[in-house]
Amino acid sequence: MRDVIDGKTPGAFYSRYGLNPTIMALEGKLAQLDHAEASLAFSSGMAAISALFMRFAAQGILCLGDVYGGTKQLLTRQLPELGIKTFSLSQTDLDSVETAIKTHQPRLVYLESPSNPTLQLQNISGLAELAHANGALLAVDNTFATPINQCPIDLGADFTVQSATKYLGGHSDLTAGVLSGCRLELDYINAWRKNLGQTIATEVAHKLSRSLLTLALRVERHNDNAQLIADYLDAHSKVRKTCYPGLASHSQHMLAKQQMSGFGGMASFYIAGDGSMAERFIDLLKVFSIAPSLGGVESLATQPIYTSHYGLSEEILRQADVDGSLIRLSIGLEDINDLIDDLEQAFSLCQ
């Protein structure tokens, strides 16, 4: 037992330590998916992100571009309350990032690609090279893409993190997170996971392992449906702008083709109206449900200003290009004609 506790011998010990057979089996599968040396399974995506941040907080964290609202709150509110300085940069061209890294000298550079909710992309390989040249590590939130569509570690990132509540779980019936990377760094991060009580429950680990069996099949259908809906929205007279990296009109479409093998099941759009019109549109939907999650088999619609980005300052919302007219769709596995018909009837009734 002592050798197991000390890490000298593989074996089971105590679930909060992660030394549970079900948890360890899951983590082996997650590491294979992410092409990583090792993975840690957490009780939620934010648990994984917070453990990662605590590992590097004292050495500095630079956040690039748009990120999930909970991540932004952690960086701008909770960590500063502990006296931890974090830095954010909205401009993500390589020259601006290089200047920021040289100025702030962070140990960790963090980003999402595609981002929540506007589907902005980051040049992962270019940023990884830049971070490494300046003594920093790169972490990528890969929740929207999933490892089926994009592998940040293959592109040079040191860590990839996901809310497994979303596509990995895929059925809106569990809450979990995953962090993958090199084994040495994850050993340090595991101490935070253990002592903050963030380890995934064994029952949830079993359910998540089951869900991974159909991940590739589900993501393929998500990709196909989302592309067709994005094409439909992009041509609609009541849509001001559609955000989907699979569209040729997306400003970063070429980058998407370079670093993604599929473009994902998330699409957002700005309705040609105000926030009240967006609310009416969502209320009129019948096949799409109103719910704040994403990545499940069922299609969902939300206004990010009231969900993922609720409570953020006007300045942060402006930088993220999030306002009341923005609608985020998590496009599920239903028949594509049913989904498009539902959107069309809502548009026709929404004045």
Automatic annotation (TrEMBL):
Keywords: Lyase, Pyridoxal phosphate. It comes from the Bacteria. GO terms for cellular component: cytoplasm. One of its GO terms (biological process) is transsulfuration. Pfam families: Cys_Met_Meta_PP (PF01053). Its EC number is 4.4.1.11. GO terms for molecular function: methionine gamma-lyase activity; pyridoxal phosphate binding. Its cofactor is pyridoxal 5'-phosphate. The modification N6-(pyridoxal phosphate)lysine is found at residue 166. PANTHER family: TRANS-SULFURATION ENZYME FAMILY MEMBER (PTHR11808). Belongs to the trans-sulfuration enzymes family. This is Methionine gamma-lyase. It comes from Methylophaga nitratireducenticrescens.
